[in-house]
Predict the structure.
Amino acid sequence: MSEKLEKGLEVLRAEMDGKAKAFFSSCVNCGICAESCLFYTETRDPRYTPIYKTEPLRKLWRKEYSFWGKISSALGFSRPMAESDLTDWEELVYDGCSMCGRCSMVCPVGVDISGMIFKVKHALAKAGISPEGLVGATQRAVDIGSPMGITLTTVHAMIKHVEEDTGLKIPMDVEGADYMALLSSNEIALYPEYLESLAKIFDHAGVSWTLSSDAFEATNSGLQIGNKAIAGQLVQRVVDGAEKLKVKNVISPECGHAYTALRWEGPNFIGKAYPFRVVHILELLDELQAAGKLKTTGKESERLTFHDPCSIVRRGGINAQPRNLLGPITENFVEMADHGNMNWCCGGGGGVSSNERAEELKLTAFNRKKSQIEATGATGVVTACSNCRMVMEEGVETNEMGVELLGLTEMIAAHLEDRPN
Amino acid sequence: MIENLIDGPLWYFSLAVFVIGVVWRLGSIIFASRKQDLSVARGAAGPAAVKTVFSRFVPHKEIASQITLPIVAGYMFHLGLFALLFFAAPHVVFLEENLLGFGWTPMPHWAFIVAAQLSFLGLIMLYMRRMVNPVSRLISTWDDHVAAILTFVVMLTGCFALLEGSTGLRLLHRFTVELWLIYFPFSALMHTFTFVPSRAFTGAWFGRRGIDA
Amino acid sequence: MKIRTLLIVMCLTLLPFQAFSQDKKPEPGVFMKDPGSELWRQVRQRDMEGVGISQVRGVDSGVLINARGDQWARFRMTQLSTYGGMAIAGIFAIVILFYVVRGRVPVEGGLSGHMVKRFTDYERVVHWTLAIVFLFLAITGLILLLGRPVLLPLFGKEVFSLMASASKEGHNLFGPLFLVSLIMMLISFARRNIYEKGDMTWLLKGGGLIGEGHASGGFFNMGEKTWYWMVILVGLVIAVSGLILVSPTFGQGRVIMELSHIVHTIGALVLMTVSVGHMYLGSIGSEGALEGMKTGYVDINWADAHHDRWGKVCHEQDLIISAEEYARLQGQKPGAGEMETAEQSK
């Protein structure tokens, strides 16, 4: 048995909990999940059927945990798991799944299919069967601190820029601040507007906040590739940074998987609960608005719609907040069909956008979003995830759609009432 | 000779396999280790688990139009079979006399026939869909086929014995039922029971995160 | 004359008449009308004019013995089962003979591997559901029709009684499913089966089975359309007559039941006979035909050969997909096996 296979199987066996057993005992292969998956609906390739992507784990369950599997193994009828049972699935789980979790919403017997796919990803990552792009990004995240290779120097340069533009001081390493903000790689490299908006909003609302030199990066490549150990290592950096500054809250930025990694999976990755609260920026803004600390003025007259980032809405439970925030600043807001918990993914989640090999498939999957956006007749799409935004910008450009992509936090910042001096 | 076997030892054997098998399978799911979730919950897991067990009976409207055939045929088959199994007069009498010691009002004969017809049509359409749909053709295992065909055979022998006038046909039906009972705990037929913990686990997961699934 | 009166007359006259006949020799030359034979004629209702009155209220309760029942039973036991059996055996013989003579009809120029979508999942589910229900009804129906002459000697009384009883119950239960599947078939396929210009040419060319060259056809050709309407119309007749037979509580009398039975059986025999031909042509008889009902896709060369007018539309609208694309849509990894078939056929 090859080392890869051995490692992969070891992980799969460790992942075989009561849930997995209940799920695999219940699945009758009806195939309904296929219709919920944009990689299937946009390609009509049956191999992208969500439950089929769990096959490495499911095959192991059949062979080692089911009655017939045990019998036929004992009698020597059954072929043991082979390396190809893992390697053949690499493309399916890394390129053909954005971990959007829509399948988990529709399964009639309630299988959390995307949860099972993550287990498979975990095994493949541990076995070293992952796409190069993601392996490289993960390596950079471990070595340099950011998957895009961003260093503290880059952040300092950006801070300087933002301070010049806004005339506001960006608090750095302030001990005992209420909130510690994090940034995703995209927000540092592509969307410095995010930090600028944070500075304006927190200044407006009088929020005590800080950035940390030790922990500014929220992107978690470990989660994207599925390696729980690395994911935990990256979460630990944030925890250490937050503990060092003794902050009460850590703000997860406008980035879907960073929220999942920090808010939901993080404590499990590192094996202990946090001494602070993790709050998504949309949750915080909603809280500030509800407390009357966020006063906005003026409304966007443009026809706008909102793209629900999967990790934040469907898998994160932040559904009402973006609507609460958009209401007061838009006058021509339209919801997409299937919006909210059943919205379609942009096509680039779960590490797909960091995986160059998946580029073409990602753009094919974007067709779903394209037709959704076109049906609304909106000229601007608001979202709250820098990855969704980047993927959709690329899709809009490739398809020459003439639609503008907007970050929700930025929009709020642009509509802030002037502070009474 | 065969009559004594089917009505006697084989019946008790199959019943024992069924009961012990199902309990064992459910136990191995419910008592299996589950890691404690260390993240701070936003909502309550328990009520969401219970809710999801029931809410998954109805498909989300966003996908319903894409899955009309399996949903309609699925309901025809499952509801028909449920009615047949527990409310057909001969079954009520059988359960009362052989197993439970009490009975209940069976459905009228015409309802029995209609339930059987719905069930048959649903099962045939579902199985045909399994055979022609590229997705279900790709993911179906031999167990799915055996389970479906065995269930069909049980229903068919039941239908053959409708007249209740022949020992041979009654024995044939009982024999296929016994085979079905023995096969049940080791097969996809287990979804009859495991869909409850399965939905509950997922419901709890969503509930903790404050998501209405 | 009323039966009751007759019965009374009979009772009164029979005994004295007999007694009298024992005492004295009948006078020669005097004709005595036999009231017994008169009575029997009435009871048998050979001339079908008399209907009795009975305390029992119900359809046909005034009929003691249905004279036509004899005719019907004789017709069913001799002609219907004999000729029916011959028709079924005959069609198999014809199909086998046809296969021996003509062989499998190949697609001109072979299969290309390039495919076009022909049927949706739902359409195929409807087709196969109807097919399965039909086959089940055909088999159980034939057991009931031909069981006594064919199966009884083969299996003996005990086994055959089980088969007959099971078949009757199965046939009755599945019957209504046939009507439901038929209606689904009617709804999803009717539009494409409306006759159109050019269909007659197909008929004149003998559907391409006789002689050289293929006959022209649209999405469905003349033969398929005719088979479709035959299934729908004859199917409806079978279904309605079957419902009359299976639910005798709606006031229909013996005559209607007998007629229904005959119509039901003859209709079913017609459909069964033609369906054997349909099954043959849809599978081993014609290269590339089964694919359409299996995967929903057919080879473009097959479409051009059998449905040239539809094939032309597929070419014009660019609906043709490559062998690799087809393999992908079937969930097979591209490049594994499927490409070879395409190469080989060139």
